Amino acid sequence: MGISPTVKCSLLIIVGASTAVTSIVMYFVFPLIMRNEIEKRMMLHEGSESYGYWKEPPIPIYIRFYFFNLTNPEGVWSLKEKPDFKEVGPYTFREHRLKVNITWNKNGTVSYQQIKSWYFESDLTNGSLEDIVTTLNVPAVAASNMYRYSPEIFYRYAIDQMLILTNSSWFVRKPVRELLFEGYSDRLIEEAQTLSPLPYDKFGWFYGKNNSDDGIYNIFTGEKGIEKLAQIDNWNRSKEVRVWEKTCNQINGTAGDMWPPFRSSSDIKLTMFVTDICRSITLKFHEETHVKGVKAYSYVADKNMLSSEEDDSSHNCFCLSDATTCLPSGGLNVSSCQYNAPAVVTYPHFLHADPAYASTVTGVKAVPEEHRMFIDIQPEMGIPMNVAARMQINIVFERIEGISFFENITSRTYFPIFWFSETAQLDESMAKQLRLVTHGLSVYTTIGCVILFVIGVILMTIGFVIFFRHRKNKEPFSVSLALLSVGNS
User: Fold this and answer.
1) How far apart are CA 46 and CA 55, in angstroms?
2) Which pTM was predicted?
């Protein structure tokens, strides 16, 4: 005995309706399931998917150094010419990062140190580490600046005599390898040790930093709330630095290797703490973009990040009363963060800076596309996909009262030393995984839901067609009786 048209019609309507409803429920529930799954994967703990990426980032990181080679030292020494520069480089190093001494805390944080190591990449370098660069005699300027405001005249006199006895000059000629990681010996450093212990026995911009860490970080794991994932709780067991004034000392943001997931375009700020300049910086949302086919939000460091108090009153606490006083917009005085050397951080080639910087030298030209700083973030995961951190180190070169070595200088010069570009971009294998998680699964799910919904509607339509056909033929029929038939069968 076959299934009666009544039962067949009822089954088609019930199955069709169930299929359609299920597809609708799946369409709205799947994003919640995905969100919960992303939270689990991104939360930091041993064994989580994000843990390996966080502990030892697999993305290749490169740092490229560009030095400003002084072409006219004699003209500057005679005070007849502005310093003129020719950019040399890049000198490229591959950077490796490894988090060590990892300690999981009961308050939902993890403490660690991060070891950074650099390996020279000759194939990606224009020149060699033996290239000679004429640059400012930084030990002489730093030593003089250290005692510039000392109430004891003796110290300035002592530094002045040391400069004379060591036959110091305003400028030095050194190979790139010594200016970067190897460092070079200087008689002035040896003599200055008699006045005050120094933290180094050689000078090099990255001397002693290879295979070293930059402090103890304590960050949130996301266990107590995914919105706090990777946010710094404290650094070197303090919630602030002791460099600036008031709120500028506060440590905000992440360490720069990840951010909380589920960002939206309304999250216009991206904040991170940078130990080398002893402050947090904030990049601004620029546009939605794609990196290797993966959706990303691009954040840029605009002119406001290094603006002066005249342009942004909240920056007045970055204005320190020392050798550089309050700087024109576009520069950050980091002397208190760099052993009292009168160092100023700007964007490369004084991009976005007040004309007061570039007007003191020649041979610099800012190109926004080459010199801008940006970070592209995958918003659902909070992972940086394409990064270019670019900054320039300058030294304030000017007359220092009481030290004859500088007595002939008549105006302040912001002497550019070098700029660097630290870049990282996810590789194709990681991009493929992100495309699947952030786009592929949702597309496949949507397609599946649509197909199920269409199948459900088709089944219901067939059921109703049978229903009306038999009704037209005056066959006793009703949905309620059909349901009863199904129950009895």
Assistant:
1) 10
2) 0.84
pLDDT (tens digit per residue) in 48-99:
888 988 999 988 999 999 999 999 999 998 888 999 999 999 999 999 999 9
Residues 441-468 have pLDDT tens digits of: 667 677 777 887 788 778 778 777 777 7
Q: Look-up: residue for tokens 């007595």?
A: 407
195 burial via Cβ count (<10 Å: 0-12, 13-18, 19+)? middle
Return the SS3 of 355. helix
Q: Name the residue among 148, 154, 138 with its Cα closest to residue 320.
A: 148
- Asked if 91 and 178 count as a contact pair (C-beta separation under 8 A), the reply is no
Please name the amino acid found at residue 271: T
Instruction: Give the residue from 249, 224, 16 showing the smallest Cα distance to 109.
Output: 224
Low-confidence ranges of the chain (pLDDT < 50): 1, 323-324, 475-484, 486-487
Residue 218 DSSP SS3 = strand
Token code pair at residue 147 = 């005692």
> Residue 222 carries which side chain, given as an amino acid letter?
G
CB-based contacts of 373: which residues, under 8 Å, 6+ apart?
283, 300, 301, 347, 388, 389, 390, 391
> What residues have CB less than 8 Å from 223, skipping those under 6 apart?
43, 44, 45, 108
Comparing C-alpha atoms, which of 177, 173, 180 is closest to residue 69? 173
Strand partners, 73: none
∠ CA 161-166-172 to the nearest 5 degrees?
A: 120
| 254, burial (CB in 10 Å: exposed 0-12, middle 13-18, buried 19+) | buried
d(CA 72, CA 67) in angstroms, rounded, equals 15
> 125 CB contacts (<8 Å, ≥6 apart)?
89, 90, 91, 92
| pLDDT at res. 70 | 97
Beta-strand pair 343-346/294-300: unpaired
